[in-house]
Amino acid sequence: MEKYTLPELPYSYKDLEPVMSEAQLTLHHQKHHQAYVNGCNAVIERLDKARTENADIDFRAASKEFSFQVGGHALHSLFWKSLAPVGKGGELSGKLKEKIIEDFGSVERFKKEFNSIASSVEGSGWAALVYEKMFQRLMIMQIEKHNVNIFPMFKMIFVLDVFEHAYYVDYKNDRAKYIEGFWQIINWDEANKRLELMLADKK
């Protein structure tokens, strides 16, 4: 059986300092993300075993658990790609900058809205810049946990993890300071590339 695996980071554990320490990033990647990978595989194994044995399990609970675990895995996998060492992620430019100004009015307004959405997640969750294909519009999605309040079919350009496990080593409970630091390590080059692919997708 093929299994979900933990992706390697596109940089070293020290490369996001001083915004994100080696200790924080190592813990987040090796422990928290790995836990979601393990959770995905455990649910799949449980489902496969039940099917092989023609046995009944709580399928509703399994589906709900898998939604949470696979959401955590997918979002973390995109999160690592959304980050780059300070000064290495390029600048906000090209089509992404044009669309942000077109849809939000200004870059400053976009960042204000993103910060507000990220900081106001109730409990654990995410903020995501997403693209809605029908109206070719950028929006900011606030996700609770890994799988609640998701806009169906909206494609994610970049995400910010605001679970406490993403920042508590470096920032304690100061989520706002962590969010401000995010703008220093965002990978604009990757975000712009993702939007360009979305715009080119005619399906």
Explain how this protein is built.
Helices cover 52% and strands 11% of the residues. With 203 residues, it is mainly α. The protein folds into 2 domains: 22-81, Orthogonal Bundle (Helix Hairpins); 94-200, Iron/manganese superoxide dismutase, C-terminal domain (minor pseudopilin epsh fold), CATH 3.55.40. The chain has a 3-stranded antiparallel beta sheet. Helix 1 packs antiparallel against helix 2 and helix 3 (94-104) crosses helix 7. It is globular. It starts with 21 loop residues before the first helix and ends with a helix. The model has no long low-confidence stretch (mean pLDDT 96).
> Which blocks of ≥5 consecutive residues have pLDDT under 50?
none
Largest sheet, spatial ordering of strands: 2-1-3
**Assembly type:** single chain
Radius of gyration: 18 Å
Question: What structural category characterises the helix and strand content?
Answer: mainly alpha
How many domains? 2
On the 0 to 100 scale, the average pLDDT is 96
- State the separation between the terminal residues, measured CA to CA: 31 Å
Number of helices: 7
Per CATH, the architecture of the largest domain is 3-Layer(bab) Sandwich
Coarse shape: globular
CATH class of the largest domain: Alpha Beta
CATH fold-type name of the largest domain: minor pseudopilin epsh fold
Number of strands: 3
Quick one: CATH superfamily of the largest domain?
Answer: Iron/manganese superoxide dismutase, C-terminal domain
Percent in strands: 5-15%
The residue fraction in helices comes out at: 40-55%
Q: SSE string, helix = H, strand = E?
A: HHHHEEEHHH
Main beta sheet strand tally, sense and closure:
3 strands, antiparallel
